[in-house]
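re: ur question from yesterday

yeah so i grabbed the chain u mentioned. its 393 aa long if i counted rite. heres the sequnce exactly as i have it in my notes:
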Amino acid sequence: MTDQDRSPTGRPIGPIAVGVFVAVAVVVGVTAGVILTSGSGAGGAGQPGATDVAAGATPPSTPTGAPSPTPAPTPTLVPAPLTGLPVTETAAVQHPVAVMVDDHEDARPQSGFNSASIVWQAPAEGGIPRYMMIFQDGIPAGVGPIRSAREYFIDWASEWHAVYVHIGGSPQAMTTLRTSGQGQLVYNADGFRFDGSDMWRIKERFAPHNLYTDGAHLRAMAKAVGAPDGAISPVWQFGPTPRSEYPPTGTTIVLRYPYETITYRYDPAARAYRRYINDSTSPQIDAADGREVRPVNVVVLRMQFGPLNDGHPLKHRLEAQDVGSGEAIISTAGQVIHGTWKKAASDAPTLLYGPDGAPVVLAPGQTFVQVMALSYGYEIQPGTIPGTGIRQN
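ran it thru and got these structure tokens back, copy pasting raw so excuse formatting
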């Protein structure tokens, strides 16, 4: 079963504008001939502060019997299970939602990157990679274009028993979703059910690169397929954000997929990695919010891929040896760690270990996971400490 064309409904592709209105009140009170000026209380040069009273004037009386305003409660913040960032307790228990997203050049710029907690990218078919964006505490203004399912992406989504959003898929993946898509591995949210309601076709693009949704409709689909909210156990370890006075500069990761080249360049000022596609001199942009894509962690997993014998040789579909262990290259806070990934079963977590065998500690924030076939080329340029020439790695 493959992606299918649907008639467009004309829903917008661009970011949903959210207005933020700030009201600033400047109060000038005149009481008993005394002028009270707005300010910090210290006042400007030659001018009294907001609480100063002119010499000889009678201070204004405080009204009696007026109720004191009740202060708004301070929300309790807890670490988000997929990023380690502080979020509200309500956000921390939202069920993860994994969305398959197109990476064909006709699908760019895609929507949803910057609201995702984790983004996976791996080969799919015909040499073209595909993304899977996992949303947990973030609410994207738009997500898409949505594409079809693959077995190994289901394995990665099942690490969170995520709602798995897609439109059709390979026969292998569809069989798994029929037998294990009611919460056993994932919760199946197929576009063949939701296209025209919680997903829609846009007019600006042609099929199959035109199926979209957004955060509110992702949550509606999660409810429709019976995915409950609740406590989520973290899989990766997150430490405090490194605040070195001299963060490394020049850390660069180049990943050569057959269809495209992905380049990450660490930005010490932003404490994040700018992401580039092919030879572009401009960073990748998320069409949902118009901002640069800047993950805080980049994880490269190297594993064996081979042709999928599913009776459709012209599709050039693949299967991955994603269960087991292999080489991992983890870059966090500008540093590069050469380690190992391990996954004990299809629904077991993908764990990350350093060269000493200890779990890797990531910086709090978004992680991009780049899955590479063993035959794909890559280049790692470690950063240097400014003013020293000393390699950080």
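noticed a couple things. The mean pLDDT is 83. also The first strand starts at residue 29 and ends at 31.
anyway ttyl
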